[in-house]
Amino acid sequence: MKNRVISRTAGIGIIVILSVGIVLAITKPFSVMEENDIVGGFQFPSLPYGYDALEPYIDAKTMEIHYDRHHRAYFNNFVNAIKGTPVEDMSLEEIFAQMSSMSDVIRNNGGGFYNHNLFWKNMSPNGGEPSDELTAAIEKAFGSFDNFKELFGSAAASRFGSGWAWLVVNSEGELEVGSTPNQDNPLMDISPIRGIPILGLDVWEHAYYLKYQNRRPDYIDNFWNIVNWRDVSERYEAALK
Ligand code: MN
């Protein structure tokens, strides 16, 4: 009798442990490395926070699909496209500098791979404030911080269809705001805005549609709550060197 009670308790324990395991496996709260995440010199990055970390501004489901399906597909398509070609040994920066001579597959997927690498790091649930140097540069370039936000926001809102808004350091070491279509970026020789991107905002519908539907301006307004200013400030400093 006693043994039966013990074995029943143990049985319930095992069922509870299995259930928790299954729930964790299904919800997968954090990104995990997969075996094909490093291909040649390129690595699909891990997400620097959990899928729900940017709630309520970006919902967990959007983060999961965006990172684990969209971003991963860009990465996979990119490494497959360059496999066995001379491009395999180039850096993304070198590839983008010669973008006009490359295929659309490399342009779209190499861009998608790089742009999202930047985007995840540009955001944080506690990104702090811009450095004094970056604040001064923003005020010098745009008159005021509010003016900068308005210009960046309108670049993001007015980009027709899919694309990105950017804050870049141009070849003169000055800040500029602009946007690019699709997965283009300001490192590409075909881009209308050129420079080193330090802040990017994805305005593809896949970045916001589940939560915001057609309200792209609300998504853009909420982006300011989760900008990782520490990361943007570090990128600004590095871009000046
Ligand atoms: Mn995207």
Q: What features would you highlight for this structure?
A:
51% helix; two-stranded antiparallel ribbon; binds manganese (II) ion
How is this structure best described in words?
The protein has 241 residues and is mainly alpha-helical. It has one domain (48-241): 3-Layer(bab) Sandwich (minor pseudopilin epsh fold). It contains nine helices and five strands. It has helices at 2-27, 60-82, 92-97, 104-121, 132-142, 145-158, 209-212, 216-223, 229-240, and strands at residues 38-39, 42-43, 163-169, 175-181, 196-202. A three-stranded antiparallel beta sheet has the order 4-3-5. Strand 1 (38-39) and strand 2 form a beta hairpin. Helix 2 packs antiparallel against helix 4 and helix 5 crosses helix 6 (145-158). The radius of gyration is 21 Å and the shape is globular. The structure holds manganese (II) ion (MN).
Short description:
By secondary structure, the protein is mainly alpha-helical.
- Could you tell me how far the N terminus lies from the C terminus, measured between alpha carbons in angstroms? 77 Å
- Main sheet characteristics: 3 strands, antiparallel
Q: What's the total helix number?
A: 9
Query: How are the strands ordered across the major sheet?
Result: 4-3-5
Produce the secondary structure layout.
Layout: H1 2-27, E1 38-39, E2 42-43, H2 60-82, H3 92-97, H4 104-121, H5 132-142, H6 145-158, E3 163-169, E4 175-181, E5 196-202, H7 209-212, H8 216-223, H9 229-240
Antiparallel strand pairs: 1-2, 3-4, 3-5
The chain binds manganese (II) ion.
